[in-house]
Amino acid sequence: MYTSYHSPNTLDEALYLKAKYGDEARAVAGATDLLLEIERGVRKRSDGSAPGMIDLTRIPGLATIEERDGWIHLGALVTHNQCVASPLIVAKAFPLARACWEVGAPQIRNRATVVGNVITASPANDTIAPLLALDARVTVRSLERGERTLPLDAFITGFRKVDLAPDELVTGLSFSALNERSDGIFIKLGLRRAQAISVVNVAVVVEREGAGDDAPVVRAAIALGAVAPVVVRASAAESFLVGKPLNAATITEAARRAIEAAAPIDDIRSSADYRRAMVETLTARALHQIAAGETRVGWPQQPVMLWGNTGGVWPVEAQRRRTEAGAASKTNQTALVNGSVMALPGAMTLLDSLRAAGLIGVKEGCAEGECGACTVSLDGMAVMACMVPAERAWGSEVITVEGLGTVAQLHPVQQAFVQSGGVQCGFCTPGFIVSAAKLLEERPHPDAAAAAEALTGNFCRCTGYHKILDAVVLAGELQSDGTE
Prior knowledge:
- With 484 residues, this protein is α+β, with helices and mostly antiparallel strands.
- It folds into 4 domains: 5-55, Uridine Diphospho-n-acetylenolpyruvylglucosamine Reductase, domain 2, CATH 3.30.43; 65-292, Uridine Diphospho-n-acetylenolpyruvylglucosamine Reductase, domain 3; 317-403, Beta-grasp domain (Ubiquitin-like (UB roll)), CATH 3.10.20; 412-481, Orthogonal Bundle (DNA polymerase, domain 1), CATH 1.10.150.
- The protein contains 18 helices and 19 strands.
- The chain has helices at residues 11-21, 34-39, 80-85, 87-92, 94-101, 106-109, 114-120, 128-133, 152-155, 235-241, 248-258, 272-292, 317-325, 350-356, 412-420, 429-442, 448-454, 466-481, and strands spanning 5-6, 25-28, 52-55, 65-68, 71-75, 137-142, 146-151, 156-158, 161-162, 168-176, 182-190, 198-208, 217-225, 232-233, 334-337, 340-343, 375-378, 381-384, 397-399.
- It has a 5-stranded antiparallel β-sheet. The chain has a 5-stranded mixed β-sheet with strand order 16-15-19-17-18.
- The radius of gyration is 23 Å and the shape is globular.
């Protein structure tokens, strides 16, 4: 699959490797985009072979979210789920939190990073629009030339193209925190509620002089995704809003002017005409929500993470302790799998590696993060094994469905699935079981809504999920009363 794999422990080591290999090796954090691109032949080296990987996830200090001097700073390893769970992002950069929540499913959000989303530079990527509306800046570094910072709209130079030299790494993002007179929202239109690529997405940030309904707009930012080769700002609409109150007439005209920034195409997800119409509709909807103070309607008070007690940060302390103790070392290509040290082959996905090692409970349904059948726990977090390099598990702990219980003593989730008849054809069941078990770690008594939220990455194209949801709720009851 990929030709080489490197796992640096420091940023300087990573920069050295990037300078040494250039475009012959790609830097990865989540790898949720890159693995698919390599599989499809999109990413190649100069000789036509697949590139190598420089995995940054064992470097400490790159997964921080902090505010300094009115600016919010995100490290290169900050995941989408970290942004969803961050009180700072929710309070002072809500459009970004909302966009991160719309990405994929919990298993994907536990791996995929905001910086990775920006580097991929697809106009349909969800986090780019809110970052553009927040006037984000990108910081990159090379071993030879040091650090430079540039605006996001200068960093993204074209369709899936960025201003990043072969020897450079992106080390972080920064943007101004929203003040008390500012509010913002992100709205995504997809073909389904979860696990969907944007047909159109809109991020809007508005600052007003005061709190009253008639307070004029001081600054407006409207960013449009999936309607041009890059995410664009609707500058005509932004200029029109300045100095005016957010009333019905102003909003209608601003939404109409937002269409001027769109240059959509016809594709498999939508026609260009429909996208233009939705730019106007979604822009108006976003402005109305801001005017009414309803930007946080529907926002979950306790989002489901499926990351146990890790806090969502790679690498976690438990992994470091295991590696130091020699229980599972990345140098001897072994992992702690279901409590036993096991050799895992590399140069393939973790899914293929686990199956090659005999763990056939991990299923391949789609091999692109759509079905959740390959869900496993990696260092305490639920992930899609088809979107993780196998080498990332070396020195780490992996739990598959085989490690949750035994025939003599089933896990409460397994027992509940049996009692509730929570199965369909059975192929996706292992992924459902692992995801539900992770849910119970953070939500011991889940209701049906929490169960549905946790399993968004596992719902396939079948139907009739009521018994599965019933099983997850029952598992909480079985866990609490000790019933096996």
